[in-house]
Amino acid sequence: MTEPGAINRPAINRPGGHCLAYHATAGDSPGVVFLGGFMSDMTGTKAMALEAHCRAQGRAFLRFDYLGHGQSSGAFEDGTIGRWADDAIAAIDQLTEGPQVLVGSSMGGWIMLLAALALPSRVAGLLGVAAAPDFTESLIWDGFDDDQRGILMDEGILHLAGDYGDAPYPITRGLIIEARDHLLLDGPIGLDCPVRLIQGMADNDVPWQTALTLAERLAGDDVEVTLVKGGDHRLSEARDLDRLGRTLDALIETIGQKDQ
């Protein structure tokens, strides 16, 4: 992991002497902020495709890395849902102006909800791609057997094999326990901005029913779910990226009509 002070791109300071790396493109409002997934980073396919899409339209765009991700400092194992949500809130607060549309991929879909709840006056709309609120509990902890739970609680960390040839995922006791303070799907979610959710039905990481549950929990009425038959978790093929751009454009158009 990159150590504090060793970042070669723009960064903002965070608690503990850490630095949050980012890339911002100036442009029109509402701006777009991309929130990446668990062990992902701001150079991923969807982040870069959306940046190019927004740049072509002259729209402001921000991508960044959470603590312990990509080019930001710190150890991944020190991260928690609350800490990463605070990173997102700080990035929106310090690096953007005016209303923003948050685009959250996988874990980023959980982070975008927490950020929107913390900054309701700054968030004009939400777009989730395989959004995974509460995944630490419903998809990880609930999927562990007794032996795995025992190892995690006793040793503080458990490494899970990745599904895409990635390095093993370190799951920490702190991640699981701290995340329980941020669970959302067990009750109403007090957000009434327009929300669009894109979910693959062949997603091996996040069940497609999660998108329907999230849509039901959201307080607002302007919520649309797009189910992609055969779509995987990453939704990063050319047709997926085209759909993502079109969905973002339509969402921004809806926001503009709402503001008139």
Question: Brief description of this entry?
Answer:
By secondary structure, the protein is α/β, with parallel strands linked by helices. The chain contains 8 helices and 10 strands.
* Unreliable parts: 1-8
CATH architecture: 3-Layer(aba) Sandwich
Number of domains: 1
Identify the overall geometry.
Answer: globular
Mean pLDDT: 93
Strand content: 15-25%
Instruction: Give the N-to-C terminal Cα separation.
Output: 47 Å
CATH class bucket: Alpha Beta
Q: Indicate the structural class.
A: alpha/beta
Named CATH topology: Rossmann fold
SSE topology string: EEEHEHEHEHHEEHEHEH
Radius of gyration: 17 Å
State the major sheet. Answer: 8 strands, mixed
Count of β-strands = 10
Specify the oligomeric state.
Answer: single chain
* Helix content percent band: 25-40%
* Biggest sheet, spatial arrangement of strands: 1-2-4-3-5-6-9-10
CATH superfamily: Alpha/Beta hydrolase fold, catalytic domain
Number of helices: 8
Features:
about 260 residues, alpha/beta, Rossmann fold, eight-stranded mixed β-sheet, two-stranded antiparallel sheet, 8 helices, about 35% helix, disordered N terminus
